[in-house]
Amino acid sequence: MKRLALLGMPNTGKSTFFNRLTGAGARVGNWPGMTVDLLSAKVLLGGDMVELIDLPGIYNLHGFSDDEQVVRHFFTSQPVNGLVVVLDTTQLDRQLALLLQLKTLGLPITLMLNMADEARQLGIHVDQQRLSDELGLTVTLISAKYGKGFQHVRRTLENLLREHPHLANASPTALNQDQNIEAELDRIISDSVTTPVTVPTGISQRIDQLFLHPWLGLPLFFLCMFGLFQLVYGIGTPLQDGMSWLLDHVKTLILVPALQGAPAPLQSFLIDGLFNGVGTVLSFLPIIVVFFMVMAVVEDSGYLARSAWLMDALMAKMGLDGRSFVMQLMGFGCNVPALMGTRIMRSRTLRLLTMMVIPFSLCSARLQVFLFFSGAIFKPVAAASVMFGLYITSFLMAFLTALVWRGKFRNHEPLLLELPPWRFPTPRQLLAQAWQQSGHFIRGASGFIVAGVIMVWALTHYPFNVTPASASTLAGRLADWMSPIFQPLGINRLLSVTLLFGFVAKEIVIGSLAVIYGAGESRLAGVIAHQLDWVQALSFMLFTLIYTPCLSTVAVLKQESKSWGFTALAVAWPLALAWLVSFVFYQTARALGW
Ligand SMILES: Nc1nc2c(ncn2[C@@H]2O[C@H](COP(=O)(O)OP(=O)(O)OP(=O)(O)O)[C@@H](O)[C@H]2O)c(=O)[nH]1
Ligand SMILES: [Mg+2]
After folding, report:
1. Which residues lie closer than 8 Å to 4 by C-beta, 6 or more apart?
2. Is the pLDDT of residue 442 over 90?
3. How far is CA 13 from the centre of its chain?
4. Tens-digit pLDDT profile for residues 181-239
5. Residue 4 parent element (H or E)
6. What is the pLDDT of residue 196?
7. Which residue intervals of 110-165 are DSSP H helices?
8. Pairing between β-strand 48-54 and β-strand 39-45 as defined by DSSP bridges
9. Do 334 and 439 meet the contact criterion of CB atoms below 8 Å apart?
10. From the centroid of its chain, how far is CA 484?
């Protein structure tokens, strides 16, 4: 199959271009280093199926951070028909150097000048014909975000493929040698790019005067986060109620009558096991979707990048840097991409320390558990404070971890952060991101959930002749065995079984509770409120927040650190911390007579 690769500096819009052309759902964000792995999709160009590859952004061909290695490895292992180089038109003076380097690879190249909309606003004019002549390449001015110039893009790519129908490899020497391209660069720029003499103070700078204000900046940031948090609950909770209402009706009006004649164990398996388990998880989907949309706004506007700038000094005190904070925030969606996002860090020690703290980020799977428990145990106003308190705890645990381990992972890499302009996310982008991320959440979780739910059902119902979930079932015996560990935390026997499954994936926790108590989401809340007091519930939530998030994170910790020792530490430490925090909390609360 024919193959084209997308290349360029970070944050130039490669993934936006890729999505626009192929209809794929690569993650886009106003943050240099959003893409850290290669992604491919197929697109029909001139009657041929062509594989288009989205690569991480690179500053030059000699970078040695892990995301840049991905690109080098790509060049040494995969032949291509041509390179599609995407540059940011507003920064051509810096970015053309990369293009000149890429030319030495000896591969066919076509150049896309992206962000044409921003260039126009800044009064930057590019003489496309002239640039094309000087570089000896086709040059297309586009705006990937708004889809401008894409008919031209398709034609250009089709021509390129027609002229270069065979796959070719990069010249290997070019990957190692550097050339003096400065002089050539200056000439090309002055010939073909006109920039206004006085750059107008853009709207971006004016917004920054407020948001990056020396002492207003941080409080404002936290205020915004708090506001967004309120927004997620304000919109998400009614939607969630609607969803559980719907699921309840499906169960009582359709499922139960339909299974009337079926044998009792089968009924129990399908209704108490599969439907209750999966349905309870599903009822939290609306709030997760809203959450991902809000995350997309933060990521795509450029506020995420600014949070790195705002938090950098504070993070440095803990041996981390501003980028570590950004990864922590990304981890609130899902820890896995956040762990991979650390690839942009060149210092291995900084990277490892950041990977130690990310798993404490309260990801969307844990969010579900907490929404359910706080909703079941506390009054609405208190529930919101509990949720907020858990987010704070999540940061505190991360910071504590950094402070404890910063001596072992000492960082010497200074942070050079480049702030992208503020950008306004389009509804199209927001919906695409929310759709993608929630889809990922469901796809990633569904296998685990179904398998977990079936397993929990079997454990709590076998042997079939005893009361489900009682002490004589398999689950009951398992719980007995674990009770010396969990009793001092106030975590009861059945909850401890769900924690065992939560090690695989947090999405299973609520599903398995539903199975254990044989109740759907709406009734389950009542059962739980009856069984636990708030101290026990909070102790359980603290443990769930802090201990190992899921098997996927463990796998990624190993994959990214390439060290079993580090992986073991990154699993053992949170386990120990979780036990300690819950223990101290529970025992103190009880000692105080709560
Ligand atoms: N104004 C404007 N913004 C754009 C355009 N294309 C992309 N963007 C925005 O630029 C930012 C970066 O886009 P991405 O597609 O993630 O960039 P990338 O090159 O893949 O970045 P890395 O994966 O970090 O290398 C996002 O906020 C996009 O919404 C455009 O044509 N105009
Ligand atoms: Mg990208």
Report:
1. 50, 51, 52, 53, 80, 81, 82, 83, 84, 157, 160, 161
2. no
3. 18
4. 777 888 888 889 988 877 667 788 889 999 999 999 999 999 999 999 889 888 988 99
5. strand 2-7
6. 81
7. 116-121, 128-135, 150-163
8. antiparallel
9. no
10. 36
**Atom 9 of ligand 1, residue of closest alpha carbon:** 13
141's tokens: 């001015």
Domains defined along the chain, listed by start = 2-194 (3.40.50.300), 219-410+432-591 (no CATH)
- What confidence tens digit (pLDDT) does each residue in 329-369 have? 999 998 999 999 999 998 999 999 999 999 999 999 999 89
Q: Which amino acid is at 473?
A: T
Q: Which token pair is 408?
A: 């072992």
Per-residue DSSP letters for 218-265?
HHHHHHHHHHHHHHHHHHHHHHHHHHHHHHHHIIIIIIHHHTTTS-HH
Neighbouring CB atoms inside 10 A of 564's CB total 9
1-13 tens-digit pLDDT: 999 999 999 999 9
Q: Which residue has the higher pLDDT, 418 or 403?
A: 403
| Cβ–Cβ < 8 Å for 148, 142 | yes
Mean pLDDT estimate for the chain: 91
Beta bridge partners of 83: 5, 109
Please give the DSSP secondary-structure letter assigned to residue 547: S
- Residue 444's pLDDT band, with cuts at 50, 70 and 90, is low
Environment of ion ligand 2 (residues, CB < 5 A): 14-15, 34-35
Angstrom distance (rounded) from CA 488 to CA 393: 21
Element (H, E) at 141: strand 138-141
Longest dimension (CA), the chain: 86
140 to 89, 127, 276, 399, 495: CA distances (angstroms):
11, 11, 54, 47, 60
Rounded to an integer, the average pLDDT of 531-537 is: 94
Q: Which of 9, 17, 28, 417 to mutate to test the pocket of ligand 1 (most atoms within 8 A of CB)?
A: 28
Residue nearest to atom 21 of ligand 1 (CA): 11
Tokens (6 digits) for 28: 């886009």
Ligand 1 pocket by C-beta < 6 Å: which residues? 8, 10-16, 28-30, 32-35, 56-57, 114-115, 117-118, 143-145, 300, 423, 429
Q: What angle do CA 118, 430, 372 make, to 5 degrees?
A: 150
* pTM score: 0.90
3-class SS of residue 168: strand
Say if residues 317 and 426 touch (Cβ distance below 8 Å).
Answer: no
Average pLDDT (539-560) is 94
Note whether 475 and 455 are within 8 A (CB): no
